[in-house]
């Protein structure tokens, strides 16, 4: 009885996402069938594209890296009860400042590397703090201001790399900074694979964040502020301080997402390279899917990245159009937080109870 | 200086109408307690289905209907996920954006056998209405003259929505649902029905917004042609406090700034800075409108927990 | 005569937990049935089934001789059942009228006829002698007024059976009187009323029948005229109640000192107006007053939750003005908040998390800024034992605790700080008499140890029972401070209503 | 890891047809430029009996990924395109020196890469010249996708051509801020028309359709990009600046199939007929509109002759 309950409890949170995955896959199957391709084969290709062998696995992890970090940053803000929608701007500013620091701070590679991390974190953090400060001081709603500040940040970063800091070497056609010296690059984890040190940073970050949130007193303050700000204030928690702190670190971590992309993958800031893939939105989804649990966010981020790399595999190897992947992804995510179990599971449980008593 | 002229304002009115329509749709959702970040997707669905309707029927009226219908279909999906299955509205909204982008691109391929954009020079766009009386109004006559019917419809819809929400019984109940869902339920109000109703209506409004985009402003469909307008609508909605009249104000502010930023491009300022103008001005405006739209924020915050 | 309502053998299971276990009640036309019982006895659950908010696991509901089933509140409403919830279900942005007519709005062509609605509400208000201001916003109404709105709403819906779940928990004595009168009046008009309450004197005043619940079962079903408070109490808690322990004599030093504290409000009248007050060691100072006269602000000003415009606040000689909440707590202030759900806990947090608030930075529970979970859990367990708090597990959500048990947890937490000074605001609101006993005893014990306590309560009996001195607040001022032996309910009531005992004479002299 | 797999694959490919991968840096849909490239490559693949797989990249990070996978999957030649792919190709090509690569529309200087470069600025110069000769209001506009350095190849050379043929002419430029926003592009064109421009060149990718619509509505004239767009609306789209990405892709595939593929830079300018202007360098099915007129075309042709003869050099605005 007790064991059964334990197992039920363990399985319960999995049921909903599984149903969502089923619905997503069924919709996809329908679309694939419409195009006249083999459903099973296509899904196999998708799976292979995401996890098929070590190479694809690392590619998935590489793609997950910025998503994890963005997700973690947002999760921190959500935990503190503020809805930070500004990850994109924070990430972009972090990226561009990290790139500039890596390029122009004098000194050895290691000095540049640290300054780049510092710059990326601070830039993202301050940008986010600005929204927090406007909220605390002037009651300017954070949800709107962060959304708006994204545009400003992206445009400003675009200006920096289109005008004063543009790469004038080579073909000089893109809005991008010059390439960063090799000594500042984050090392790849495996030769010839795209996953880099940033992934380790992200995972370690998730663990640290988890420990911080769950076991430290500051983490406790953040959580209580998110759960009931009045209770937090009553208990002696400095509401504004914790909020600003959370926003600063939230943006800072998003800034790190940009930083590791620059230092580990692109080796320069390229306009659009961080915004077009929608890392910020995917990170937002990861955080929400995991209910802002840091470890869950990391897992969700990897799964979302896998969906994307899987879709790329599908695009390469089948005639199924790429859009099908975004349809599958859309349907899947649409229902992934759905509470299907609410009625279905209950009915089942009742039936089980009756059986038990008879 | 030639920064301000009639064409500036006329252009602002044209460009603002899809945003206004969508923001009204978003406001309806917010009013029943559902924060809808899927506006972008809803508009895109409307834009695409309007083109499909137009292409097959050759009739603009049918196109408007199919445009609205496209918005409704997608909004029902959104409603199903958020109301029936209690999915997190923000996640569901983002999903809707992805989904519609994929579906419409796929649809371009499947229906029109093209990639990227569908354009047919024989396709008729929405007519421009030369309303006879309006032209004669001094000063603003010129601004209001010669727009597509959906432009007038957008402003009309705002006023209609205002009357609906604040003067009718159903509107009153919708407000009640948004303010305190638990209380509304305990009163025996048909909360779910009202929520679906609001979502469907928001689907219609966003569908029309899309129609105005694909058949009013231009006559074509291109992949991702909403280009972020859904998010601007979201901001306009929040800034306007989910109040129809407030939304007219916030949309117009945004449209005007956008139109102005285009004109400023000529004035030897980097275009990135001129393009920032609407966003910066909106942020500044928020300092004066602090308390607006708290409800929509609250709904957003709730879903984060 | 047949019963208007019968509930037979009602059972409700939450998982394996039996919230209601074969409960039966009967109710006639024009009758008031009181249901009493400890926190978590299953009163609310029973009523939720009657109102269609919960489906019974088994049992039947018979309405006017016919079996009835409710799938939702609208079914219940249609059949003439109305419920005034323990936590009001009001739309604070809507007017009183709108709140009352919602769901049955008068309309013309689909348009909401607000004018007619206001007239109808006024008529109803006159008919049942329930005073409200139809055009006011519900959020601006006092608690008592909000309650009247709820009752009018139910009447407007045409209810014949009216459920009132702990309606008096949040009312002032005067308002309670009014409500009881209203209940009686409604019963005389032929309405049937189910009243859930923890306050036995009210039961004795207004009920015809009493049903007592304990642990989900009926432990007593008596006519009012056949019973007494003591008997009811025994049926409720399953044991005799004890006398409060002796109060020892203490003439302590001044501990909390307020001097001319003022807070400007949004309106023209200040919220706190040159308020001065001293609490000594070994003393309970009760603050009586009709709610809304600045008590909340007084508490918040002392604990640092709102800023004070003028004046001086000292705790044991330390200036508190402009200091943070954390500072004040460290100097020696503990605080049982007046609203346990708003200030005192986070519903979504676990019991442990709710308990650890304020301790998380204390050095016994914090090492290298990590919270020492195990040592803290030890402490919480002692609280749970001492106050007999019913919890399933420390990881359960605080929101799942019954109100009484949550209150005990909060009281235990605040007493656990062992501070010299305690603010106890509405310490027993909505709490059953068994729990109330514990809390009162604990507060008195703290006093006897030589600590100072500021007791703010809308319950005059509580003030009279516990306080050494009683300060009466009116419109942001302390109008008088009475010693324990001088205070009577009548004298306090007059002061609370704004009248000075010698008001007429002073007035005369000034005008003369 | 990648090299191991390529070994596995190389024995299987030796007996098969040659395999070519075309890795596009973006999704094809948004840009006719890539559609054409795809078509050209496909056509050559069919004609010369090689296997061709087109891979679209969803975003910037996907480019490198796709290139690496193409290497791993044993494609004999991997063609990619555009500045966006430069970084990725540099990395991947350097790591796989035994593999052949080609990049269209930019230059990557590596021993195993063939670069196909376009001199669009030459065509833009001609278009500007034609505009300068045709305008009646002495006001000419251009609606540009984004204010990024790349677009200078269009704007600067166009202005040069315009000013050289018509020093009086005023040049209006506006930026859409997106490659796929026809509604905004249309507004910009309308704005330029309201300021008196009678010719507005479209250089906003998908947005050009919006420019064409504005022209139709307000009755001014416009031009398209890459392929002959005059067919869309012969009354208003009077010129088109051409860019033969199809030819470039076709030639690259053909050379590889015939074994004549060589690393290094292949230039496509006016001279090579890789870029051009309708009526001047290439025939058009639509008759020449009177707004431009044969006289103007003849004058532009003269400029064209000068350029191909090497007497006149149009600077690439990007190489300062
Ligand atoms: N939805 C639920 N799920 C699980 N247990 C529940 C639920 N609702 C009530 N209970 C449990 O049922 C028991 C009875 O609760 P109920 O609210 O009826 O008590 P009550 O008599 O109204 O208490 P109080 O005096 O505090 O208002 C409590 O122990 C409570 O924990
Ligand atoms: N999910 C749940 N699991 C367990 N118990 C629950 C749950 N939801 C509600 N309850 C219980 O349901 C009861 C009804 O809630 P209600 O808000 O009426 O509390 P209450 O105890 O009556 O509050 P108060 O004492 O403050 O008046 C509470 O006793 C609470 O313990
Ligand atoms: Mg109860
Ligand atoms: Mg209770």
Offer a few descriptive terms:
heterotetramer, A: 358 residues, mainly alpha, 14 helices, 76% helix, B: mainly alpha, ABC transporter involved in vitamin B12 uptake, BtuC, two-stranded antiparallel sheet, 13 helices, 73% helix, globular, binds magnesium ion
Provide a brief overview of the structure.
The complex is a heterotetramer of chains A (358), B (305), C (512) and D (320). By secondary structure, chain A is mainly alpha-helical. Chain A has helices at residues 2-35, 39-51, 54-79, 87-104, 109-138, 142-162, 197-215, 217-227, 229-234, 239-266, 279-289, 294-317, 322-336, 341-357.
Determine Rg of chain A (CA atoms, Å): 22 Å
**Global Rg of chain D:** 21 Å
The fraction of residues in strands of chain D falls at 15-25%
H-E string of chain A: HHHHHHHHHHHHHH
DSSP E strands of chain D, number: 12
The percent of residues in helical segments of chain D reads: 40-55%
Structural features, described:
- The complex is a heterotetramer of chains A (358), B (305), C (512) and D (320).
- Chain A is 76% helix and 0% strand.
- By secondary structure, chain A is an all-alpha fold.
- Chain A has a domain at 65-291.
- Chain B has 305 residues and is mainly α.
- Chain B has one domain: ABC transporter involved in vitamin B12 uptake, BtuC.
- Chain B has a two-stranded antiparallel sheet.
- Chain B starts with 5 loop residues before the first helix and ends with a helix.
- Chain C starts with a strand and ends with a helix.
- Chain C is of the alpha/beta class and 512 residues long.
- In chain C, the strands form six sheets. Chain C has a six-stranded mixed β-sheet, with helices on both faces. In chain C, strands 18-21-22-15-23-24 form a six-stranded mixed β-sheet, with helices on both faces.
- In chain C, helix 13 packs across helix 14 (403-416) and helix 14 (403-416) runs parallel beside helix 15 (433-448).
- Chain D contains ten helices and twelve strands.
- Chain D has 320 residues and is of the alpha/beta class.
- Chain D starts with a helix and ends in a 12-residue tail after the last helix.
- One magnesium ion (MG) is lined by residues 39, 166, 403, 430 of chain C.
- One adenosine-5'-triphosphate binds next to helix 14 of chain C.
């Amino acid at each position: 009885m007790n064991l059964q309950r334990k197992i039920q409890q363990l399985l319960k949170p999995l049921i909903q996402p599984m149903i969502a995955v089923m619905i997503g896959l069924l919709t996809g199957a329908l679309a694939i069938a419409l195009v006249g391709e083999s459903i099973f084969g296509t899904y196999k290709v998708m799976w292979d594209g995401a996890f098929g062998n070590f190479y694809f696995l690392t590619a998935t992890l590489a793609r997950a890296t910025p998503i994890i970090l963005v997700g973690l940053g947002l999760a921190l803000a959500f935990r503190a009860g503020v809805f930070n929608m500004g990850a994109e701007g924070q990430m972009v500013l972090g990226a561009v400042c990290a790139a500039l620091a890596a390029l122009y701070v004098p000194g050895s590679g290691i000095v540049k590397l640290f300054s780049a991390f510092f710059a990326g974190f601070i830039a993202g953090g301050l940008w986010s703090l600005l929204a927090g400060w406007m909220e605390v001081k002037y009651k300017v709603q954070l949800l709107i201001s962060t959304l708006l500040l994204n545009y400003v940040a992206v445009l400003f970063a675009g200006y920096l790399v289109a005008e004063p800091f543009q790469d004038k070497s080579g073909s000089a056609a893109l809005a991008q900074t010059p390439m960063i010296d090799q000594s500042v690059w984050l090392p790849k984890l495996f030769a010839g694979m795209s996953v880099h040190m940033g992934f380790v940073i992200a995972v370690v970050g998730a663990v640290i964040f988890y420990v911080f949130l769950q076991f430290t007193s500051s983490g406790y303050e953040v959580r209580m502020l998110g759960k009931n700000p009045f209770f937090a204030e009553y208990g002696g928690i400095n509401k504004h301080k914790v909020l600003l702190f959370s926003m600063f670190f939230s943006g800072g971590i998003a800034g790190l997402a940009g930083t590791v992309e620059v230092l580990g993958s692109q080796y320069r800031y390229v306009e659009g390279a961080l915004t077009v893939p929608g890392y910020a939105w995917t990170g937002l989804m990861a955080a929400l899917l995991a209910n802002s649990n840091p470890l869950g966010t990391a897992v969700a981020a990897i799964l979302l990245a896998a969906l994307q790399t899987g879709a790329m595999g599908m695009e390469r190897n089948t005639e199924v159009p790429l859009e099908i992947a975004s349809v599958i992804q859309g349907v899947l995510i649409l229902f992934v937080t759905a509470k299907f179990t609410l009625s279905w599971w209950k009915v089942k449980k009742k039936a089980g109870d009756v059986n038990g008593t008879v | 200086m030639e920064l301000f002229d009639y064409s500036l304002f006329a252009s602002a009115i044209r460009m603002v109408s899809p945003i206004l329509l969508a923001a009204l749709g978003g406001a309806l959702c917010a009013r029943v307690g559902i924060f809808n970040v899927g506006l972008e997707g809803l508009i895109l669905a409307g834009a695409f289905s309007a083109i499909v309707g137009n292409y097959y029927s050759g009739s603009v009226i049918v196109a408007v209907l199919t445009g609205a219908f496209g918005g409704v279909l997608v909004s029902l999906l959104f409603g199903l996920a958020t109301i029936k299955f209690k999915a997190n509205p923000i996640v569901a909204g983002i999903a809707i954006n992805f989904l519609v982008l994929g579906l419409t691109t796929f649809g371009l391929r499947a229906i029109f056998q093209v990639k990227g954009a569908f354009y047919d020079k024989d396709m008729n766009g929405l007519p421009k209405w030369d309303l006879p009386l309006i032209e004669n109004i001094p000063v603003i006559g010129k601004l209001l003259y010669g727009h597509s019917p959906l432009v007038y419809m957008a402003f009309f819809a705002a006023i209609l929505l205002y009357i609906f929400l604040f003067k009718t019984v159903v509107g009153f109940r919708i407000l009640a649902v948004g303010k305190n869902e638990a209380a509304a339920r305990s009163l025996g109000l048909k909360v779910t029905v009202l929520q679906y109703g609001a979502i469907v209506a928001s689907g219609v409004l966003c569908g029309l917004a899309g129609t105005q985009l694909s058949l009013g402003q231009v006559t074509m469909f291109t992949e991702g042609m909403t280009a972020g307008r859904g998010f601007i609508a979201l901001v306009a909605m929040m800034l306007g406090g989910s109040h129809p009249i407030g939304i007219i104000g916030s949309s117009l502010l945004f449209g005007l700034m956008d139109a102005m930023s285009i004109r400023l491009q000529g004035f030897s300022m980097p275009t990135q800075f001129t393009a920032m103008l609407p966003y910066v001005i909106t942020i500044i405006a928020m300092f004066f409108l602090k308390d607006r739209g708290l409800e929509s924020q609250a709904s957003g915050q709730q879903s984060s927990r | 005569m047949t019963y208007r309502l019968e509930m037979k053998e009602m059972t409700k299971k939450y998982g394996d937990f039996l919230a209601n276990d074969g409960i039966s009640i009967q109710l006639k036309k024009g009758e008031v049935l009181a249901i009493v019982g400890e926190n978590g006895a299953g009163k609310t659950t029973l009523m939720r089934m009657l109102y269609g908010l919960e489906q019974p696991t088994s049992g039947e509901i018979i309405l006017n001789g016919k079996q009835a089933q409710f799938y939702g509140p609208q079914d219940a409403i249609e059949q003439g059942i109305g419920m005034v919830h323990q936590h009001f279900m009001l739309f604070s942005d809507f007017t009183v009228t709108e709140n009352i007519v919602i769901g049955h709005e008068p309309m013309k062509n689909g348009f909401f006829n607000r004018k007619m609605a206001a007239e109808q509400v006024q008529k109803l208000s006159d008919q049942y002698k329930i005073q409200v201001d139809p055009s006011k916003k519900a959020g601006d109404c006092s608690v008592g007024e909000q309650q009247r709105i709820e009752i009018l709403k139910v009447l407007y819906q045409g209810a014949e059976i009216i459920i009132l779940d702990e309606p008096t928990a949040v009312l002032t004595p005067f308002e309670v009187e009014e409500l009881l009168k209203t209940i009686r009046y409604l019963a005389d008009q032929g309405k049937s009323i189910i009243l859930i309450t923890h306050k036995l004197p009210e039961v004795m005043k207004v009920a015809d029948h009493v049903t007592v619940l304990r642990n989900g079962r009926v432990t007593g079903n008596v006519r009012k005229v056949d019973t007494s408070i003591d008997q009811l109490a025994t049926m409720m808690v399953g044991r005799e109640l004890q006398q409060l322990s002796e109060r020892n004599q203490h003439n302590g030093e001044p501990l909390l000192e307020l001097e001319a504290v003022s807070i400007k409000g949004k309106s023209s009248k200040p919220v706190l107006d040159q308020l001065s007050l001293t609490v000594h060691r070994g003393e309970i100072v009760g603050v009586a007053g009709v709610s809304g006269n600045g008590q909340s602000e007084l508490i918040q000003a002392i604990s640092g939750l709102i800023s004070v415009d003028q004046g001086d606040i000292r705790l044991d000689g330390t200036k508190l003005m402009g200091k943070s909440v954390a500072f004040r707590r460290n100097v020696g202030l503990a605080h049982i908040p007046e609203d346990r759900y708003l200030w005192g806990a986070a519903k979504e947090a676990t019991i442990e998390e709710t308990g650890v608030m304020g301790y998380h930075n204390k050095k016994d529970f914090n090492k290298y800024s990590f919270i020492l979970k195990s040592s803290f859990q030890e402490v919480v367990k002692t609280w749970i034992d001492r106050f007999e708090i019913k919890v399933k597990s420390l990881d359960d959500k605080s929101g799942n605790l019954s109100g009484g048990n949550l209150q005990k947890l909060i009281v235990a937490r605040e007493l656990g700080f062992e501070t010299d000074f305690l603010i106890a605001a509405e310490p027993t609101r909505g709490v059953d008499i068994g729990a109330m006993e514990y809390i009162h005893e604990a507060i008195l014990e703290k006093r006897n140890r030589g600590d100072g306590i500021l007791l703010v309560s809308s319950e005059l009996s509580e003030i009279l029972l516990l306080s050494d001195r009683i300060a009466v607040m009116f419109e942001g001022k302390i109008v008088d401070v009475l010693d324990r032996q001088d205070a009577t309910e009548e004298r306090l009531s007059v002061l609370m209503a704004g009248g000075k005992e010698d008001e007429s004479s002073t007035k005369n002299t000034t005008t003369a | 890891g990648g090299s191991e797999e390529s070994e596995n694959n190389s024995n299987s490919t030796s007996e098969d047809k040659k395999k070519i991968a075309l890795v596009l840096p973006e999704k094809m849909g948004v840009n006719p430029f890539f559609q054409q490239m795809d078509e050209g490559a496909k056509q050559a693949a069919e004609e010369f009996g090689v296997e061709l797989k087109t891979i679209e990249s969803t975003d910037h990070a996907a480019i490198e990924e796709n290139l690496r996978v193409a290497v791993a999957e044993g494609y004999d030649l991997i063609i990619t395109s555009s500045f966006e792919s430069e970084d990725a190709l540099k990395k991947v090509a350097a790591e796989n020196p035994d593999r052949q690569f080609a990049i269209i529309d930019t230059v990557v200087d590596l021993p195993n890469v063939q670069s196909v470069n376009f001199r669009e600025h030459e065509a833009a110069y001609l278009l500007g010249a034609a505009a300068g000769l045709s305008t009646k209001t002495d006001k000419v506009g251009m609606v540009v996708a984004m204010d990024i350095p790349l677009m200078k190849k269009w704007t600067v050379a166009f202005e040069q051509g315009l000013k050289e043929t018509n020093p009086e002419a005023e040049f209006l430029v506006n930026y859409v801020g997106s490659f796929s926003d026809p509604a905004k592009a249309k507004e910009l064109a309308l704005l330029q028309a309201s300021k008196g421009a009678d010719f507005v060149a479209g250089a906003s990718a998908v947005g050009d359709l919006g420019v064409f619509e504005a022209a139709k509505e307000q009755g001014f004239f416009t031009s398209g990009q890459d392929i002959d767009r005059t067919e869309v609306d012969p009354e208003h789209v009077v010129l088109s600046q051409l860019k033969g990405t199809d030819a470039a892709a076709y030639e690259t595939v053909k050379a590889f199939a015939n074994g004549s593929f060589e690393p290094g830079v292949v230039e496509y300018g006016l001279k090579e007929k890789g870029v051009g202007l309708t009526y001047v360098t290439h025939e058009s099915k639509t008759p020449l509109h009177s707004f431009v007129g044969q006289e103007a075309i003849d004058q532009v042709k003269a400029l064209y002759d000068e350029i191909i003869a090497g007497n006149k050099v149009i600077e690439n605005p990007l190489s300062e």
